[in-house]
C-alpha cells in the first residue's frame, strides 16, 4: 500500500468513526471496490485502522481513563460500565468474528457488498427509531443497561453495523442522556478495539510496517483534530437516511453483479 492510499484510508477512518455510518463498513467498501483488496484482508485493515482513532479517544478522554485507573473498585460506576460492557461485548463479538473471518476467506466482492448494504440499512433503521431524549446520567446507568450495551457493541464487528450507532441506541433506549451516552460510547470503544486487534493479530501481521505506521499516524492526527467538530455535527444531522440509501445502492449493485 502506497503512502497516499494509507493517508486517505486514515482520514476516511477518522471521519466515519465519529459519525454513526460504520467506519468499518465504509473503509472496507473503499478497499474492496477501489483498491482491489481481498475481503478477509480488508477486514484486517479495517480493524487495524481503529488503532489510530482509539489513541485519539484515549488522549481526548484521558481524565476519565485516569479516573478509572485510580478507582478500580466495583462500585465506581465508570469502572463497572467499562468492565461489564467489555465482558458482554466479548460474548457476541468473538463468535461473530470467527464466523465472519471464515466466511470472507476466498469470497467474491459482491456478497460482501450485499452484507454491508443490509447492515447499513439495519443501522439506519436503528438510528431512525432511537429515542433521543433521556434523563439518566452516567452514575444512574444500571447493570441491565451495561449488559445490553455490551451485547449490542459486539455486533459492531460486522461491517455495516455502526459501533457508535448501536451503542448509542442501546444507551438511549435505557433513557440515558445524549451527552452521557456519547461519552460512554467512546469510553467503551477502547477495550473493544484492543480486543478486536488481539483477535485479528494474525491478519494484522500481514500489514507492512510502513503502511501500519502511516495508517496509525494519519487516523490519530486527523481523528483528534476533527473529533469535537464532527461530534457536534453528528448531533444536528440525521444519518439514518444516508445509511439506508447507501445500503440500498450496495444491495442493488451486489445483486446486479451476482446476476451478471
Report on this model:
With 260 residues, this protein is an all-alpha fold. The protein has one domain. The chain is built from 13 helices and no strands. It has helices spanning 3-17, 23-34, 39-48, 50-60, 62-70, 77-104, 109-129, 143-154, 163-173, 178-199, 201-204, 209-236, 240-259. Helix 6 packs across helix 10. 42% of the residues are buried. The mean pLDDT is 87.
Please tag this protein with its features.
260 residues; mainly alpha; 13 helices; globular
Low-confidence stretches: none
Tell me the overall shape. globular
Share of residues in helices? over 70%
What is the ordering of alpha helices and beta strands? HHHHHHHHHHHHH
How are the SSEs placed, and which strands pair?
Layout (H helix, E strand, L loop, with lengths): L2 H15 L5 H12 L4 H10 L1 H11 L1 H9 L6 H28 L4 H21 L13 H12 L8 H11 L4 H22 L1 H4 L4 H28 L3 H20 L1
Helix pairs in contact: 1-2, 1-12, 2-3, 2-7, 4-10, 4-12, 6-8, 6-10, 7-13, 8-9, 9-10
Task: Please give a quick description of this structure.
Helices cover 78% and strands 0% of the residues. The chain has 260 residues and is mostly helical.
